[in-house]
Design a protein that fits this description.
Elements: E1 2-7, E2 17-22, E3 25-30, E4 35-38, H1 46-54, H2 58-62, E5 65-67, E6 72-76, E7 79-80, E8 84-90, E9 96-105, H3 108-111, E10 126-128, E11 134-136, H4 141-148
Antiparallel strand pairs: 1-2, 2-3, 3-4, 4-6, 5-6, 7-8, 8-9, 9-10, 9-11
Amino acid sequence: MKKEITETSPFTGKDSVIVEIVNGKTSKICMDSGYMTNVDFNYDNTDLILKYEESMPKLMIDLKYKDEHLGQYWYLTSIQFKTGMIYPQPCKHGEYEWSFSPVIELNEEEKLKYPIPEKDGEYYDTRLATEHSETYSKHDFTGACRRAGAVVTANE
């Protein structure tokens, strides 16, 4: 069973946090700031948090938010879509902004530059075009999601 509601963001003070409850497990994402949390990120779950952070970019670890009210950490998110990828990038003064990099189709000649590891003679058909990235302010995660073609809020 899936239930979705909204709450006030601890980052912007707006009613922009989408709360999703699936099989009794609660996840939250702030559609303004791009921070997300779930019940697994509670302070007592140290081993899981350390494992989660092992593969996480330094920026996401450095900017994690300790929510005293929930007793959980919030992390910046990154999302891969068919159309591209949304991810945080560092900017001035230890802050962040959002980048959207589109996925582009490769022609036959370009494919030869992108072989699939351990698959002789096979090549990727698309790639992430970071040279065509677009940036969005730290509180415009929704704008980046719209650019990716995603449905972004429960109210839209």
